[in-house]
Amino acid sequence: MNLHEYQAKLLLNRYGVPIQRGVLIEQKEDAEKAFAQLQEETGTTWAVVKAQIHAGGRGKGGGVKLAKNLDEVKTHVDNILGMMLKTPQTPGGLEGPGKLVRKVLLTEDVYYPDPETGEMDTNEFYMSILTDRAKECNVIVYSTEGGMDIEEVAEKTPHLVHKEYVHPHLGLQGFQMRRIAFNLGLSGAAYKSMTKFVNSLYAAFVGADASLVEINPCLKTSDNKIVAADSKVSLDENALYRHKDLAEWNDETEEDPTEVEAKKYGLNFVKLDGNVGCMVNGAGLAMATMDIIKLSGGEPANFLDVGGTADAQRVENAFRIILRDPAIKAILINVFGGIVRCERIAQGVVDAYKNIGDINVPIVVRLQGNGADKAKGIIDESGLAVHSAVTLQEAADLVNKVVAG
Ligand code: GDP
Ligand code: MN
Fold first, then answer.
1. Does Glycoprotein count among this protein's keywords (predicted)?
2. What is the count of structural domains for the chain?
């Protein structure tokens, strides 16, 4: 589950991570009030208007603007709130339709000169925390080259991207925090601030059961504070039961509408780019099914796990969801009758066919295990244009044959 920048900052701040503070604006009329509140709370003269969508690269697409007075705040809020923002990361990229901006965050300006010397002395770093499965550790990835595309830095100057592996049981050690601050070229007060920053950031990553925390830019201010000027956080959905308050932050408007609906029906659905719809019970079998479709020359259109206790109703819901994709050329139903009885699935297929009406894509069914014979009987007697297959390979070959016409 992805969080918006304003939510991520709120969360990180609970763990003591210093952030660029802000006020959320949902209505254009609130711009003036928000600016007043922000100035009161932070003492900032300038402010930054930042579009809140689930995509990075907002700056490049015109979704982050500096405002030097109330008029500019109003103008930028007016322009950004409600716009279709295109960034390299929104669907279809800069050529795509963009994403509707429903909220903006008005933040304090953290790129200010040193109050004592008047000098500008900021530094943009990159820092993220995630799990390295191969190393069986968490890893802190960081670089002096923050602010811009970290992907480009990693590709062109990989030596500038550092990694600090953290053993999940030992936790982040003092020497590791110091090594990070040192490698970022910091000294004095900034060095100390950075060790504290990393420590709190790691605590947030573990405490919130995050799968990713990414701060870009992680800013050293002119007066040697370290603050999260941007933040991206993804939470592990399997741990959300431990974070009921965070689960409520889920913004369904940012999700694929079909995936949202599938979730309501208890279906585990992920939309993909191919043309073979898949309906499978069990995540492992679903992955194997997608693999074999690909190996046989086809392209799966989705991942769909109907669950171990699938019934006729759920099968029908799954059908409707798969069929919503206009790219679908065939559907492969692959169910192993373990807990579930195959004849129930078969009945579901037949019912769905009748209830939904004009299903005009060919369907290949492979029902094996508990109740397979009865299931075959139901399918055969139904008189529907459903092809049966016995082995998984047969099923995949059959699907590719019908897709090819
Ligand atoms: P992203 O483009 O989606 O990654 O959005 P960011 O939150 O990283 O903002 C984009 C850029 O805006 C940053 O790289 C900064 O250069 C700039 N920016 C962010 N906060 C401030 C600020 O407080 N003051 C100024 N002057 N620029 C800022
Ligand atoms: Mn950023």
1. no
2. 3
Quote the CA–CA distance of 272 and 245 in Å, as a whole number. 30
Q: 126 catalytic, yes or no? A: yes
Q: What is the CATH number of the domain that holds 377?
A: 3.40.50.261
Q: pLDDT averaged over consecutive 10-residue blocks of the chain (405 residues)?
A: 97 98 97 98 97 94 96 97 94 89 98 95 98 97 92 92 97 98 98 98 98 98 97 96 96 87 89 92 92 92 85 86 91 89 88 85 90 90 83 88 83
Contacts 24+ apart (CB under 8 A), 173-180: 176/140, 180/140, 180/142
Q: Would the CB of 104 count as within 6 Å of ligand 1?
A: no
User: Following DSSP, what letter does each residue of 226-238 receive, concatenated?
Assistant: EEESS-EEEE-GG
Ligand 1 contact, 59 CB (< 6 A): yes
Is the minimum distance from the CB of 56 to ligand 1 under 6 angstroms? Answer: yes
**Ligand with the closest atom to the CA of 22:** 1
Range of the domain at 296: 256-403
